[in-house]
């Protein structure tokens, strides 16, 4: 693990990584080569710096000047390698560049110090090794071949020409050989150690990534199990709600029937006080029946057991039926309820009953949250490409909705004000059911609202029904 590395080794790696592009550090192999390029560059710079006093003591005159120029030139050109690494973001070009600098400097030193008697021959053996470490095995093979060609050319120049100069004193070859032999051993040892450090940290990072991946797999599996449990719980809840709602409707319908019969008897016997109490029983029972119907419909939608009945009708007619049916409620709240029909008739092929249910919920909510105001139902058509849509917008001048509650109001059993002392009653099922029904018919529902100024609920439905809808019987078509 990376945490197990010695502190100074970690600091060395962090120092070499400084300024490297993030793309190099993400891939383990490219990161290893980048670290070796950085380390090799600084080793070459140190070697060139230590060579300066050697040149000063073993050469003189023109030889000293040219050797120092070659040495310092190699040092400066080597520093281009790290810049090239950062500029290109790839180790290959920088690795070839630094290898070329070492090769050129070594060939110059060999050719000016007696060729095959030169103490610098040992440095030439480093060139293929450096190329392999920094730029890959193919680069090592290439520079190995280049070194062999260079040896052949130097051999030919030494034996068949007299053009190679002799700048160094042959009497210093023994000490020079010892110095550069030790430097070569230290360089190989340092590069080998740096390669091991980079490899160990790459392994540590890979192990850490594997552990994180294993943890992620465990979390995914845990989430999958929880999702399956949630689906099973939701299915059980929907089945329970559907069963209980059905069982509650039967006795409740009987209560409503008997209560209505008693209302008629109270009328016949002229018992106004009893009649008023019985009317309250009928009203409360019908309200409870409506809530049970909403629960039943919502559970059917969630269990995907609610079928749509497709029929052709004029969209304006459904909106007008809803407006006329809710006029008494509007008058009790002191509201003006009006319809804004389209300029031309819009024919829809949808579930008329479910659409009426959606509009009754939306208009009923608008009337409930508006007092002595105005509720307007707009109907118009839209076209998007080849698709045609029917749009219903219910606009009110009521209390409005805060921005943070726009999404919450479409969740089941959710109300903006859920406190026990809330002013407006309700179960929070109406809008959730509307959203599900509209989406089943292939449409969308949304809200625009300004708190204290009113709201606009917009239902956008395709004029043609989605494929999952079942066509209505011919007798039921308009």
From TrEMBL:
<dbReference type="GO" id="GO:0016301">
    <property type="term" value="F:kinase activity"/>
</dbReference>
<dbReference type="InterPro" id="IPR005467">
    <property type="entry name" value="His_kinase_dom"/>
</dbReference>
<keyword id="KW-0808">Transferase</keyword>
<dbReference type="InterPro" id="IPR003594">
    <property type="entry name" value="HATPase_dom"/>
</dbReference>
<dbReference type="InterPro" id="IPR004358">
    <property type="entry name" value="Sig_transdc_His_kin-like_C"/>
</dbReference>
<dbReference type="InterPro" id="IPR036097">
    <property type="entry name" value="HisK_dim/P_sf"/>
</dbReference>
<dbReference type="InterPro" id="IPR036890">
    <property type="entry name" value="HATPase_C_sf"/>
</dbReference>
<feature type="transmembrane region" description="Helical">
    <location>
        <begin position="97"/>
        <end position="122"/>
    </location>
</feature>
<keyword id="KW-0472">Membrane</keyword>
<protein>
    <recommendedName>
        <fullName>histidine kinase</fullName>
        <ecNumber>2.7.13.3</ecNumber>
    </recommendedName>
</protein>
<keyword id="KW-0597">Phosphoprotein</keyword>
<feature type="transmembrane region" description="Helical">
    <location>
        <begin position="68"/>
        <end position="85"/>
    </location>
</feature>
<dbReference type="InterPro" id="IPR003661">
    <property type="entry name" value="HisK_dim/P_dom"/>
</dbReference>
<dbReference type="Pfam" id="PF02518">
    <property type="entry name" value="HATPase_c"/>
</dbReference>
<keyword id="KW-0418">Kinase</keyword>
<keyword id="KW-0812">Transmembrane</keyword>
<keyword id="KW-1133">Transmembrane helix</keyword>
<dbReference type="Pfam" id="PF00512">
    <property type="entry name" value="HisKA"/>
</dbReference>
<feature type="transmembrane region" description="Helical">
    <location>
        <begin position="35"/>
        <end position="56"/>
    </location>
</feature>
<feature type="transmembrane region" description="Helical">
    <location>
        <begin position="173"/>
        <end position="195"/>
    </location>
</feature>
<feature type="transmembrane region" description="Helical">
    <location>
        <begin position="142"/>
        <end position="161"/>
    </location>
</feature>
<feature type="domain" description="Histidine kinase">
    <location>
        <begin position="243"/>
        <end position="465"/>
    </location>
</feature>
């Amino acid at each position: 693990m990376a945490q197990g590395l010695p502190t100074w080794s970690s600091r060395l790696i962090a120092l070499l990584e400084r300024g490297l592009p993030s793309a190099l550090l993400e891939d383990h192999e490219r990161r290893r080569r980048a670290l070796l390029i950085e380390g090799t560059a600084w080793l070459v710079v140190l070697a060139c710096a230590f060579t300066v006093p050697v040149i000063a003591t073993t050469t003189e005159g023109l030889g000293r000047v040219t050797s120092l120029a070659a040495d310092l030139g190699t040092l400066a050109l080597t520093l281009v390698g790290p810049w090239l690494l950062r500029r290109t973001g790839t180790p290959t070009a920088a690795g070839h560049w630094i290898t070329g600098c070492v090769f050129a400097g070594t060939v110059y030193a060999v050719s000016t110090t007696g060729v095959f008697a030169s103490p610098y021959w040992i440095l030439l053996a480093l060139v293929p090794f450096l190329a392999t470490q920094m730029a890959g095995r193919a680069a090592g093979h290439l520079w190995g071949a280049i070194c062999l060609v260079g040896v052949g050319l130097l051999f030919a120049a030494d034996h068949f020409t007299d053009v190679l100069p002799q700048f160094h004193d042959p009497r210093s070859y023994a000490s020079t050989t010892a110095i550069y032999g030790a430097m070569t051993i230290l360089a190989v040892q340092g590069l080998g150690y740096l390669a091991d450090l980079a490899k160990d940290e790459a392994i540590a990072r890979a192990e850490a990534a594997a552990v994180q991946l294993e943890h992620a797999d465990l979390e995914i599996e845990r989430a999958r199990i929880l999702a399956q449990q949630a689906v099973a719980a939701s299915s059980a809840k929907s089945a329970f709600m559907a069963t209980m709602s059905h069982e509650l409707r039967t006795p409740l319908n009987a209560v409503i029937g008997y209560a209505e019969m008693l209302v008629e008897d109270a009328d016949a016997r002229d018992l106004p006080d009893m009649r008023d109490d019985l009317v309250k029983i009928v009203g409360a029972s019908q309200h409870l029946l409506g809530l049970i119907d909403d629960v039943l419909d919502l559970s059917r939608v969630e269990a995907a057991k609610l079928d749509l009945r497709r029929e052709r009708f004029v969209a304006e007619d459904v909106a007008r039926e809803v407006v006329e049916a809710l006029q008494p409620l509007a008058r009790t709240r002191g509201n003006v309820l009006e319809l804004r029909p389209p300029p031309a008739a819009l024919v829809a092929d949808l579930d008329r009953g479910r659409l009426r249910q959606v509009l009754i919920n939306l208009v009923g909510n608008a009337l409930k949250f508006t007092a002595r105001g105005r509720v307007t139902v707009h109907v118009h058509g839209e076209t998007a490409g080849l698709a045609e849509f029917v749009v219903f917008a219910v606009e009110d001048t009521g209390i409005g909705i805060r921005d943070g509650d726009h999404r919450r109001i479409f969740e089941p059993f959710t109300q903006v004000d859920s406190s026990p002392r809330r002013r407006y009653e309700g179960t929070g099922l109406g809008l959730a059911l509307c959203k599900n029904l509209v989406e089943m018919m292939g449409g969308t529902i949304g809200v625009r609202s300004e708190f204290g100024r009113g709201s606009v609920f917009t239902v956008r439905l395709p004029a043609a029904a989605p494929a999952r809808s079942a066509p209505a019987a011919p007798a039921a078509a308009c």
